[in-house]
Amino acid sequence: MKPFSRPHHDDVLVAGAGLLGGLVLWAVGLHTQGGRPLTDAWVLVPLTLMAGLELLRRTAPQTALVTGTCVLVADQFTPGSLATVVMFTDLVYAAVVYGTPAAARRIPVTTGLITVGMTIGFYAWFRQPEALLIGVVTGLVSFAPATTGVLVRNHREAAESARLRAEQTALLAELDRSQAVAAERARMARELHDMVANHLSAIAIHSTAALSLDDPATTRQALSVIRENSVDGLAEMRRLIGLLRDTSGHDEPTAAPTLAGLDALIAQARTNGADSGLYFALDDRRAQDGPLPAPVELAAYRIVQESLTNALKHAAPGTVEVALAHADGLLTVCVTSLYGDRPGPRAPGSGAGLIGMRERTELLDGTFTAGPESAPDGTKIWQVRAQLPADERELSA
């Protein structure tokens, strides 16, 4: 059972105004029709009932309209009150505006058919042009408020749809902003990790060696490596700060590293890994057909850089080989190192490097794998392998 709903305060005002107006008209003796079987006092009955139905114009509009129609018919047996007729027109309007969508479509059609039927019927009955006035009055009482209600309802629904679209647009804009912020934070995290992790790892390893070995020569050499990596790391940090302060809208810093700097990167790794028994080799099999797209060169450089950093942290003594190949529109980057325990100091790892390399590869729609494998001679190795689309057309597609 539907719970009782209190009338809207505006409906109470409408009902009160209609009832008061009807009482004033009844008091002065102003009626809408004469020669009816019931006396003037009976006018107050449909007037009071119609005023009571106005209280339901929002909470039960269809019930109020059906009942109000019956009350209006009963009012035809009395001298009639203009207030009763006006309140009925308001019930028709309210049934369209506040009723169900089906009722809002059905009521204008029904009232239109009633208006046409009343016009034709009374004209055929009286055979007088004045009979057309009955059709006009019927249209004013029923069809006109129904069509007005349709216009108001359509306007409200259009305004509500516009509001919902505005809210959805604002929500989508906020989602886009959040995604853009998250993507930019991830890019900054990758840049910060790739720029600084290599230098900090070398500093950690050599500072541990300097503290654990009581040898002035070894300590001096370790401090030299620490200073070199500190200076390089500071330069990288300044470049990153410059990137964050750049308002030109570039996606990458203007001085982004390329594969042309791999020789210097390998040389630095040789210096940092000498005390750990690590040797570094570069096998570049790319054809000399010009530079690759800038995003590809940056991603490949960072993948090699992070792989070398991981080798300095975890690789067993031996050769760390960096191999590059460019064929069939793909740049293949492969970094291989011995897998196993090693003596001497080691720097801790967080796993963020592998995540960053994978993200860089996926951003270019490439493939990335990393993990232990068995070499043809049975040796356990750790291999990082990335394949990056190196065709400008594929990157722009």
Number of helices: 11
User: Could you say which overall geometry the principal axes of the C-alpha atoms support?
Assistant: rod-shaped
Measured on Cα atoms, how large is the radius of gyration? Answer: 43 Å
Poorly predicted sequence stretches spanning 5 or more consecutive residues: none
Distance between the termini: 61 Å
User: What share of the residues lie within helices?
Assistant: 55-70%
Query: What count of structural domains?
Result: 2
Number of strands: 5
The chain-level structural class is alpha+beta
For the sheet with most strands, the description reads: 5 strands, mixed
Mean pLDDT across all residues, rounded?
82
Order of helices and strands: HHHHHHHHEHEEHEEH
Strand content: 5-15%
Strands in their spatial order, largest beta sheet: 1-2-3-5-4
Report on this structure:
This protein has 397 residues and is of the alpha+beta class. The protein folds into 2 domains: 9-170, no CATH class; 257-397, 2-Layer Sandwich (Heat Shock Protein 90), CATH 3.30.565. The protein is 63% helix and 11% strand. It contains 11 helices and 5 strands, in the order ααααααααβαββαββα. It has helices spanning 9-28, 44-54, 61-75, 82-98, 101-126, 132-212, 216-245, 262-273, 294-314, 352-363, 392-396, and strands at residues 278-284, 318-327, 330-338, 367-374, 380-389. Helix 6 packs across helix 10 (352-363). 29% of the residues are buried.
Quick rundown:
Helices cover 63% and strands 11% of the residues. By secondary structure, the protein is an alpha+beta fold.
